[in-house]
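Technical note accompanying the year-one report. For the benefit of new consortium partners, we illustrate the data format agreed upon in the data management plan: each record pairs a sequence with a C-alpha coordinate string. No post-processing was applied to the example shown here.
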Amino acid sequence: MKNSLRDRLKSLGVQEGIKKSSEFQLGRRYPIEKSISGEYLQNSFGEVFIHSDEFPTDYQHGNTSLSTPVGITTLARWAKTIDLELLNSRDLVFLDTETTGLSGGTGTFVFLVGIGFQTVEGFTVKQFFLRDPAEESAFLISLEEAISGFKGLVTFNGKSFDVPILKTRYILNGFQSPFIDKNHIDLLPLARRLWKYRLANRNLGILETEILNLERSSEEIPGWMIPEMYIDYCRSGDSRPLKGVFYHNAMDIVSLAGLLMKISHLVDPGKQDDVVEGVDIMAVGKLYESLGNDKEAGSFYEVAIQRQMEDDHRILAKKTYASLSKRKRKWDLAIPIWKELAASGQWDACVELAKYFEHSLDAYDEARCFAELGRKIVEKIEMPKVKRDQLGLDFDRRISRLSAKIEKNTDK
Protein backbone atom coordinates (compact mmCIF):
# COMPACT_ATOMS: atom_id res chain seq x y z
CA MET A 1 0.00 0.00 0.00
CA LYS A 2 1.27 3.45 -0.88
CA ASN A 3 2.50 5.69 1.92
CA SER A 4 0.29 8.58 2.96
CA LEU A 5 1.22 12.12 1.97
CA ARG A 6 2.33 12.80 5.53
CA ASP A 7 4.65 9.78 5.50
CA ARG A 8 6.14 10.75 2.15
CA LEU A 9 6.79 14.32 3.26
CA LYS A 10 8.28 13.02 6.50
CA SER A 11 10.67 10.88 4.43
CA LEU A 12 11.65 14.10 2.65
CA GLY A 13 12.66 15.60 5.97
CA VAL A 14 9.55 17.79 6.30
CA GLN A 15 8.35 17.23 9.87
CA GLU A 16 6.06 19.97 11.14
CA GLY A 17 3.93 22.79 9.83
CA ILE A 18 2.40 20.80 6.97
CA LYS A 19 -1.34 20.60 6.65
CA LYS A 20 -2.42 17.03 7.20
CA SER A 21 -4.21 15.55 4.20
CA SER A 22 -4.48 11.77 4.25
CA GLU A 23 -6.91 11.71 1.35
CA PHE A 24 -4.83 13.92 -0.98
CA GLN A 25 -2.79 12.02 -3.56
CA LEU A 26 0.62 13.62 -4.14
CA GLY A 27 1.01 15.73 -7.29
CA ARG A 28 -2.48 15.18 -8.69
CA ARG A 29 -3.99 18.69 -8.61
CA TYR A 30 -1.87 20.01 -11.47
CA PRO A 31 0.34 17.11 -12.67
CA ILE A 32 3.75 17.71 -14.16
CA GLU A 33 2.73 16.76 -17.71
CA LYS A 34 0.41 19.76 -17.77
CA SER A 35 3.27 22.12 -16.92
CA ILE A 36 6.20 20.60 -18.80
CA SER A 37 6.18 18.74 -22.10
CA GLY A 38 7.41 15.21 -21.76
CA GLU A 39 6.59 11.55 -21.68
CA TYR A 40 6.29 8.72 -19.18
CA LEU A 41 8.80 5.92 -19.50
CA GLN A 42 7.83 2.53 -18.14
CA ASN A 43 10.25 0.12 -16.47
CA SER A 44 9.88 -2.86 -14.15
CA PHE A 45 9.48 -0.59 -11.11
CA GLY A 46 6.90 1.81 -12.53
CA GLU A 47 6.93 4.92 -14.67
CA VAL A 48 9.07 8.06 -14.79
CA PHE A 49 8.38 11.47 -16.28
CA ILE A 50 11.10 12.61 -18.71
CA HIS A 51 11.40 16.00 -20.39
CA SER A 52 13.73 16.43 -23.38
CA ASP A 53 15.28 19.45 -25.07
CA GLU A 54 17.21 19.48 -28.33
CA PHE A 55 19.84 22.12 -29.12
CA PRO A 56 20.78 22.12 -32.83
CA THR A 57 24.35 22.14 -34.10
CA ASP A 58 24.26 25.90 -34.76
CA TYR A 59 23.13 26.72 -31.21
CA GLN A 60 25.42 29.20 -29.43
CA HIS A 61 25.53 29.08 -25.65
CA GLY A 62 26.97 32.48 -24.88
CA ASN A 63 30.25 32.55 -26.79
CA THR A 64 30.49 28.77 -27.12
CA SER A 65 29.17 26.22 -29.59
CA LEU A 66 28.08 22.96 -28.00
CA SER A 67 28.73 21.00 -31.18
CA THR A 68 32.44 21.85 -31.31
CA PRO A 69 34.57 18.69 -30.95
CA VAL A 70 36.80 18.77 -27.90
CA GLY A 71 39.98 17.00 -26.96
CA ILE A 72 40.03 15.86 -23.35
CA THR A 73 43.47 14.27 -23.07
CA THR A 74 44.88 16.96 -20.79
CA LEU A 75 41.71 17.11 -18.69
CA ALA A 76 41.70 13.33 -18.32
CA ARG A 77 45.30 13.39 -17.12
CA TRP A 78 44.53 16.16 -14.65
CA ALA A 79 41.50 14.23 -13.33
CA LYS A 80 43.58 11.03 -13.19
CA THR A 81 41.07 9.30 -15.48
CA ILE A 82 43.51 7.90 -18.02
CA ASP A 83 40.81 5.74 -19.62
CA LEU A 84 39.22 8.94 -20.95
CA GLU A 85 42.30 10.20 -22.79
CA LEU A 86 41.43 8.68 -26.15
CA LEU A 87 37.70 9.37 -25.97
CA ASN A 88 35.81 12.16 -27.72
CA SER A 89 33.06 14.42 -26.45
CA ARG A 90 30.28 12.06 -27.63
CA ASP A 91 31.46 9.51 -25.06
CA LEU A 92 30.67 11.95 -22.24
CA VAL A 93 27.46 12.53 -20.32
CA PHE A 94 26.95 15.77 -18.38
CA LEU A 95 24.96 15.48 -15.16
CA ASP A 96 23.39 17.83 -12.63
CA THR A 97 20.85 17.24 -9.86
CA GLU A 98 18.23 19.17 -7.94
CA THR A 99 17.61 17.96 -4.39
CA THR A 100 15.47 18.56 -1.33
CA GLY A 101 18.43 19.97 0.59
CA LEU A 102 22.07 20.96 0.33
CA SER A 103 23.44 19.06 3.32
CA GLY A 104 23.21 15.55 1.87
CA GLY A 105 22.59 12.52 4.03
CA THR A 106 19.94 9.82 3.86
CA GLY A 107 17.11 12.33 4.34
CA THR A 108 17.94 14.22 1.16
CA PHE A 109 16.06 13.21 -1.98
CA VAL A 110 17.14 13.83 -5.56
CA PHE A 111 13.95 14.85 -7.32
CA LEU A 112 15.30 16.06 -10.68
CA VAL A 113 18.32 14.80 -12.63
CA GLY A 114 19.39 16.39 -15.88
CA ILE A 115 21.77 14.73 -18.28
CA GLY A 116 23.19 16.12 -21.51
CA PHE A 117 25.15 14.62 -24.37
CA GLN A 118 26.30 15.40 -27.89
CA THR A 119 24.58 13.81 -30.87
CA VAL A 120 24.95 14.07 -34.63
CA GLU A 121 22.08 16.58 -34.60
CA GLY A 122 23.52 18.73 -31.80
CA PHE A 123 23.13 18.52 -28.02
CA THR A 124 20.36 16.73 -26.12
CA VAL A 125 19.20 17.37 -22.56
CA LYS A 126 17.00 14.82 -20.77
CA GLN A 127 15.50 15.55 -17.35
CA PHE A 128 14.17 12.82 -15.06
CA PHE A 129 11.58 14.01 -12.55
CA LEU A 130 10.56 12.33 -9.30
CA ARG A 131 6.89 13.27 -9.19
CA ASP A 132 6.31 11.14 -6.09
CA PRO A 133 8.88 9.83 -3.54
CA ALA A 134 7.19 6.43 -3.76
CA GLU A 135 8.40 6.21 -7.39
CA GLU A 136 12.09 6.60 -6.56
CA SER A 137 13.09 3.09 -7.63
CA ALA A 138 11.66 3.58 -11.11
CA PHE A 139 13.29 7.03 -11.23
CA LEU A 140 16.75 5.65 -10.37
CA ILE A 141 16.54 2.69 -12.75
CA SER A 142 15.58 4.95 -15.65
CA LEU A 143 18.55 7.21 -14.93
CA GLU A 144 20.90 4.22 -14.76
CA GLU A 145 19.70 2.96 -18.13
CA ALA A 146 20.11 6.41 -19.68
CA ILE A 147 23.76 6.85 -18.64
CA SER A 148 24.90 3.24 -19.09
CA GLY A 149 26.20 3.77 -22.63
CA PHE A 150 28.52 6.66 -21.75
CA LYS A 151 32.14 6.10 -20.76
CA GLY A 152 32.77 9.38 -18.96
CA LEU A 153 30.85 11.62 -16.56
CA VAL A 154 31.20 15.41 -16.35
CA THR A 155 29.80 17.42 -13.41
CA PHE A 156 30.31 20.67 -11.54
CA ASN A 157 31.00 19.83 -7.88
CA GLY A 158 29.60 16.40 -8.63
CA LYS A 159 32.32 14.48 -6.80
CA SER A 160 31.43 16.20 -3.54
CA PHE A 161 27.67 16.59 -3.94
CA ASP A 162 25.65 15.13 -6.84
CA VAL A 163 27.25 11.70 -7.15
CA PRO A 164 27.50 10.92 -3.39
CA ILE A 165 23.81 11.77 -2.92
CA LEU A 166 22.79 9.65 -5.89
CA LYS A 167 24.93 6.77 -4.61
CA THR A 168 23.12 7.01 -1.28
CA ARG A 169 19.71 6.90 -2.97
CA TYR A 170 20.68 3.82 -5.02
CA ILE A 171 21.94 2.02 -1.91
CA LEU A 172 18.83 2.89 0.12
CA ASN A 173 16.70 1.44 -2.68
CA GLY A 174 18.72 -1.78 -2.69
CA PHE A 175 20.55 -1.07 -5.96
CA GLN A 176 24.21 -0.92 -6.86
CA SER A 177 25.29 2.57 -7.81
CA PRO A 178 26.00 3.00 -11.55
CA PHE A 179 28.67 5.58 -10.67
CA ILE A 180 31.14 3.24 -8.98
CA ASP A 181 33.18 2.60 -12.12
CA LYS A 182 32.36 5.81 -14.02
CA ASN A 183 35.35 7.89 -15.08
CA HIS A 184 34.53 11.30 -13.69
CA ILE A 185 35.72 14.83 -14.53
CA ASP A 186 34.55 17.42 -12.00
CA LEU A 187 34.94 20.88 -13.53
CA LEU A 188 34.65 22.85 -10.27
CA PRO A 189 38.19 22.26 -8.93
CA LEU A 190 39.58 22.74 -12.44
CA ALA A 191 37.70 26.02 -12.88
CA ARG A 192 38.95 27.20 -9.48
CA ARG A 193 42.48 26.52 -10.62
CA LEU A 194 42.26 28.04 -14.09
CA TRP A 195 40.50 31.28 -13.12
CA LYS A 196 41.71 31.84 -9.56
CA TYR A 197 43.85 34.82 -10.56
CA ARG A 198 41.02 36.97 -11.92
CA LEU A 199 37.77 35.63 -10.45
CA ALA A 200 37.29 35.74 -6.69
CA ASN A 201 34.25 33.46 -7.00
CA ARG A 202 34.18 30.60 -9.50
CA ASN A 203 30.67 29.26 -9.05
CA LEU A 204 28.79 28.26 -12.19
CA GLY A 205 26.79 31.49 -12.33
CA ILE A 206 29.93 33.64 -12.27
CA LEU A 207 31.62 31.45 -14.88
CA GLU A 208 28.59 31.77 -17.14
CA THR A 209 28.78 35.55 -16.97
CA GLU A 210 32.55 36.07 -17.05
CA ILE A 211 33.76 33.13 -19.15
CA LEU A 212 30.80 32.07 -21.32
CA ASN A 213 29.44 35.62 -21.69
CA LEU A 214 25.95 34.37 -20.93
CA GLU A 215 22.94 35.78 -19.10
CA ARG A 216 20.02 33.53 -18.21
CA SER A 217 16.45 34.47 -19.07
CA SER A 218 13.72 35.62 -16.68
CA GLU A 219 12.70 31.97 -16.26
CA GLU A 220 15.72 31.42 -14.01
CA ILE A 221 15.08 30.33 -10.42
CA PRO A 222 17.81 30.92 -7.78
CA GLY A 223 19.26 27.61 -6.64
CA TRP A 224 18.57 28.25 -2.96
CA MET A 225 14.81 28.40 -3.66
CA ILE A 226 14.58 25.07 -5.43
CA PRO A 227 14.34 22.64 -2.47
CA GLU A 228 11.44 24.58 -0.96
CA MET A 229 9.71 24.75 -4.33
CA TYR A 230 9.67 20.97 -4.54
CA ILE A 231 8.35 20.73 -0.99
CA ASP A 232 5.62 23.19 -1.98
CA TYR A 233 4.79 20.97 -4.95
CA CYS A 234 4.53 17.99 -2.59
CA ARG A 235 2.15 19.98 -0.37
CA SER A 236 -0.05 21.46 -3.08
CA GLY A 237 0.23 19.13 -6.05
CA ASP A 238 0.68 22.22 -8.23
CA SER A 239 3.56 21.61 -10.65
CA ARG A 240 3.36 24.95 -12.49
CA PRO A 241 6.05 26.75 -10.43
CA LEU A 242 8.48 23.92 -11.29
CA LYS A 243 8.87 25.17 -14.87
CA GLY A 244 11.59 27.52 -13.63
CA VAL A 245 13.32 24.63 -11.83
CA PHE A 246 13.45 22.61 -15.05
CA TYR A 247 14.89 25.65 -16.85
CA HIS A 248 17.52 26.16 -14.12
CA ASN A 249 18.60 22.52 -14.30
CA ALA A 250 18.71 22.47 -18.11
CA MET A 251 20.85 25.61 -18.21
CA ASP A 252 23.24 24.10 -15.67
CA ILE A 253 23.68 21.10 -17.96
CA VAL A 254 24.18 23.18 -21.10
CA SER A 255 26.61 25.48 -19.30
CA LEU A 256 28.55 22.43 -18.13
CA ALA A 257 29.01 21.43 -21.75
CA GLY A 258 29.92 24.99 -22.75
CA LEU A 259 32.44 25.22 -19.93
CA LEU A 260 34.09 21.96 -20.97
CA MET A 261 34.41 23.31 -24.53
CA LYS A 262 35.94 26.54 -23.22
CA ILE A 263 38.41 24.74 -20.95
CA SER A 264 39.44 22.19 -23.59
CA HIS A 265 40.34 25.01 -25.99
CA LEU A 266 42.07 27.02 -23.28
CA VAL A 267 44.43 24.14 -22.44
CA ASP A 268 45.02 23.17 -26.07
CA PRO A 269 48.47 24.46 -27.17
CA GLY A 270 48.24 26.90 -30.04
CA LYS A 271 44.57 27.79 -29.57
CA GLN A 272 45.03 30.83 -27.33
CA ASP A 273 43.74 33.60 -29.57
CA ASP A 274 44.12 37.29 -28.80
CA VAL A 275 40.95 37.30 -26.69
CA VAL A 276 42.39 34.94 -24.06
CA GLU A 277 43.79 36.86 -21.12
CA GLY A 278 47.41 36.43 -20.15
CA VAL A 279 46.58 35.54 -16.56
CA ASP A 280 44.47 32.59 -17.76
CA ILE A 281 47.29 31.39 -19.99
CA MET A 282 49.64 31.55 -17.02
CA ALA A 283 47.22 29.38 -15.04
CA VAL A 284 47.23 26.81 -17.86
CA GLY A 285 51.02 26.82 -17.74
CA LYS A 286 50.86 26.00 -14.04
CA LEU A 287 48.42 23.18 -14.83
CA TYR A 288 50.84 21.67 -17.35
CA GLU A 289 53.74 22.06 -14.93
CA SER A 290 51.77 20.18 -12.24
CA LEU A 291 51.30 17.37 -14.77
CA GLY A 292 55.05 17.20 -15.37
CA ASN A 293 54.83 18.61 -18.91
CA ASP A 294 57.48 21.31 -18.54
CA LYS A 295 57.85 21.93 -22.27
CA GLU A 296 54.20 22.88 -22.73
CA ALA A 297 54.25 24.80 -19.44
CA GLY A 298 57.15 26.93 -20.67
CA SER A 299 55.36 27.64 -23.94
CA PHE A 300 52.28 28.87 -22.09
CA TYR A 301 54.37 31.06 -19.78
CA GLU A 302 56.09 32.64 -22.79
CA VAL A 303 52.74 33.49 -24.37
CA ALA A 304 51.32 34.77 -21.08
CA ILE A 305 54.19 37.21 -20.52
CA GLN A 306 53.50 38.81 -23.91
CA ARG A 307 49.83 39.46 -23.08
CA GLN A 308 48.37 42.40 -21.22
CA MET A 309 47.80 41.78 -17.53
CA GLU A 310 48.12 43.49 -14.18
CA ASP A 311 51.65 44.18 -12.95
CA ASP A 312 51.38 41.72 -10.06
CA HIS A 313 50.28 38.96 -12.39
CA ARG A 314 53.01 39.75 -14.92
CA ILE A 315 55.61 39.56 -12.17
CA LEU A 316 54.19 36.24 -11.01
CA ALA A 317 54.25 34.88 -14.57
CA LYS A 318 57.87 35.90 -15.01
CA LYS A 319 58.91 34.43 -11.67
CA THR A 320 57.12 31.18 -12.42
CA TYR A 321 58.73 30.87 -15.84
CA ALA A 322 62.16 31.70 -14.43
CA SER A 323 61.72 29.13 -11.68
CA LEU A 324 60.80 26.45 -14.23
CA SER A 325 63.79 27.40 -16.38
CA LYS A 326 66.07 27.22 -13.34
CA ARG A 327 64.80 23.75 -12.48
CA LYS A 328 65.53 22.65 -16.06
CA ARG A 329 68.91 24.46 -15.90
CA LYS A 330 67.99 26.62 -18.86
CA TRP A 331 69.98 29.62 -17.66
CA ASP A 332 69.69 31.41 -21.00
CA LEU A 333 65.96 31.77 -20.27
CA ALA A 334 66.07 32.38 -16.53
CA ILE A 335 68.83 35.00 -16.31
CA PRO A 336 67.24 37.65 -18.58
CA ILE A 337 63.94 37.32 -16.72
CA TRP A 338 65.61 37.67 -13.31
CA LYS A 339 67.48 40.75 -14.52
CA GLU A 340 64.19 42.35 -15.66
CA LEU A 341 62.63 41.55 -12.32
CA ALA A 342 65.61 42.87 -10.36
CA ALA A 343 65.53 46.11 -12.34
CA SER A 344 61.83 46.48 -11.47
CA GLY A 345 62.47 46.12 -7.72
CA GLN A 346 62.09 42.39 -6.98
CA TRP A 347 64.54 41.48 -4.22
CA ASP A 348 64.06 37.71 -4.65
CA ALA A 349 65.28 37.98 -8.26
CA CYS A 350 68.44 39.60 -6.89
CA VAL A 351 68.94 36.58 -4.65
CA GLU A 352 68.64 34.20 -7.61
CA LEU A 353 71.11 36.22 -9.66
CA ALA A 354 73.56 36.42 -6.79
CA LYS A 355 73.38 32.65 -6.34
CA TYR A 356 73.86 32.01 -10.04
CA PHE A 357 76.88 34.27 -10.50
CA GLU A 358 78.46 33.01 -7.29
CA HIS A 359 77.96 29.27 -7.59
CA SER A 360 77.73 28.68 -11.35
CA LEU A 361 80.24 31.19 -12.71
CA ASP A 362 82.41 32.08 -9.70
CA ALA A 363 81.73 35.68 -10.74
CA TYR A 364 81.82 37.14 -7.24
CA ASP A 365 81.84 40.80 -8.28
CA GLU A 366 78.60 40.41 -10.24
CA ALA A 367 77.12 38.33 -7.47
CA ARG A 368 77.90 41.04 -4.89
CA CYS A 369 76.41 43.74 -7.12
CA PHE A 370 73.10 41.92 -7.22
CA ALA A 371 73.21 41.17 -3.48
CA GLU A 372 73.78 44.87 -2.77
CA LEU A 373 70.92 45.81 -5.11
CA GLY A 374 68.66 43.37 -3.29
CA ARG A 375 69.69 44.92 0.06
CA LYS A 376 68.71 48.37 -1.18
CA ILE A 377 65.37 47.13 -2.51
CA VAL A 378 64.51 45.57 0.86
CA GLU A 379 65.10 48.90 2.58
CA LYS A 380 62.74 50.74 0.22
CA ILE A 381 59.70 48.48 -0.16
CA GLU A 382 56.90 48.05 2.36
CA MET A 383 56.97 44.87 4.44
CA PRO A 384 56.70 43.82 8.10
CA LYS A 385 59.72 44.95 10.17
CA VAL A 386 60.52 41.41 11.26
CA LYS A 387 60.75 40.23 7.65
CA ARG A 388 62.73 43.32 6.60
CA ASP A 389 65.25 42.76 9.41
CA GLN A 390 65.65 39.07 8.55
CA LEU A 391 66.10 39.72 4.83
CA GLY A 392 68.54 42.53 5.57
CA LEU A 393 70.57 40.18 7.75
CA ASP A 394 70.58 37.50 5.04
CA PHE A 395 71.76 39.99 2.41
CA ASP A 396 74.47 41.34 4.76
CA ARG A 397 75.80 37.82 5.30
CA ARG A 398 75.79 37.14 1.58
CA ILE A 399 77.57 40.42 0.81
CA SER A 400 80.13 39.75 3.55
CA ARG A 401 80.87 36.26 2.20
CA LEU A 402 81.18 37.50 -1.38
CA SER A 403 83.46 40.34 -0.29
CA ALA A 404 85.71 37.82 1.43
CA LYS A 405 85.87 35.71 -1.73
CA ILE A 406 86.68 38.76 -3.84
CA GLU A 407 89.44 39.79 -1.44
CA LYS A 408 90.87 36.28 -1.40
CA ASN A 409 90.99 36.19 -5.20
CA THR A 410 92.67 39.62 -5.26
CA ASP A 411 95.44 38.43 -2.93
CA LYS A 412 96.34 35.54 -5.21
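Partners are asked to follow this layout when depositing records. Confidence is low (pLDDT under 50) at residues 1-6, 12-27.
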